[in-house]
Amino acid sequence: MGENSLKSLHLFSRCHLLDLPWEDVLVPHILCYLPLQHLVSLQRVSKQFHSLIQVYLANCRTFDLSPVTFCSMLKDNKVLQSLSLQNCSDWVTDKELLPVFGQNQHLQKVDMSGCAWLTRHSLVAVSLSCTHLQHLGLAHCEWVDSLSLRSLADHCGGLQSIDLTACRQLKDDAICYLAKKCLKLRSLSLAVNANVTDESVEEVAKNCRGLEQLDLTGCLRVRNQSIRTLAEYCPKLQSLKVNHCHNVTESSLDPLRKRNVVIDVEPPLQRALVLLQDVLGFAPFINLQI
To answer: Less CB within 10 Å around the terminal CB: N or C of the chain?
Structure first.
């Protein structure tokens, strides 16, 4: 081994991880690839590592909480833009979340889907603190009520997507109020809600003209009339889910199909061909030309 190689090896052996530039190298190019569990352990190694992890957390704009995460780690973070709570839905409560929402007023995306231990206070806190919110997931949050949804509508008018799947407390009045306030909605799920009727769908259609995706799966009280209104007022609609909507028929869906809207139920003839194929083992040829 040459003299130059020995000198390089000696210099390399004296180089430590913390000698690298923190904000230019370690934070954006190394720490971002470490699982959160490792970050928690790493900050216990020394005071320097603790300071490094705090710098990383304070500048972290997207945070996916897991069961091993303690919300106290977020107490100094004031620049979060995205927060997913799905992985800790079985333990997170209002107590942990309210301070996080209060300090992170730039949050644009929050997913609280399935968080059974939260209450309406968390949704009210989001609406009051995070007025720039654009995307919100509340699927299977049965604690969402009309009052908290109205608060959201009053303060988060820039909302672009919201998932209200199986929010069973909600009725037409709250959904109509949301539609009148959040005119920029592009994606909305009202699936698995027996309280939703044509009134909600028509109000959404007339106010949210930029709507692109609507999920009405299992909304048993939705009928053809509101689907026709949807076709009339929402020219940008790309996807419609009406599976298990037994009062919605092909007469209202056909105009949307002709606009190439993706619908999750097949036309009657196609369904019949599938049944025949199951019975006969092959699909019979049918000439549809007149």
So the answer is: C
Q: What is the CATH number of domain 62-279?
A: 3.80.10.10
Q: Is the separation of the CB atoms in 156 and 131 below 8 Å?
A: yes
Does residue 57 contact residue 74 with C-beta atoms inside 8 Å? yes
Helix (H, G, I), strand (E, B) or coil at 110: strand
* N-to-C CA span, the chain: 86
pTM score of the predicted model: 0.74
List the beta strands (DSSP E) in 87-129.
Answer: 109-111
Three-state secondary-structure class, residue 82: strand
pLDDT of 49: 81
Q: Which residue is associated with the tokens 């994606």?
A: 187
Q: Half-sphere exposure of 179 toward its Cβ, with a 13 Å CA cutoff?
A: 23
Rounded Cα–Cα distance for residues 254 and 196 (Å):
22
Token pair listed for 173: 């009045």
Boundaries of every domain in the chain: 16-59, 62-279
Residue 62 pairs with which residues in a beta bridge?
82
For residue 21 the two structure tokens come to 């530039």
Biggest alpha carbon–alpha carbon distance for the chain: 89
Question: For position 166, what pLDDT does the model report?
Answer: 97
Would you say residue 11 has pLDDT above 90?
no
Exposure pattern of 127-137 as b/e (b: 16+ CB <10 Å)?
bbbbeebbbbb
State what percent of residues in the chain have pLDDT above 90.
56
Name every residue whose Cβ is closer than 8 Å to that of residue 240 and which is 6 or more positions away in sequence: 213, 214, 216, 227, 230, 253, 256, 261, 262, 263, 264
The strands making up 213-215's β-sheet, listed across from edge to edge, are 62-64, 82-84, 109-111, 135-137, 161-163, 187-189, 213-215, 239-241, 262-263
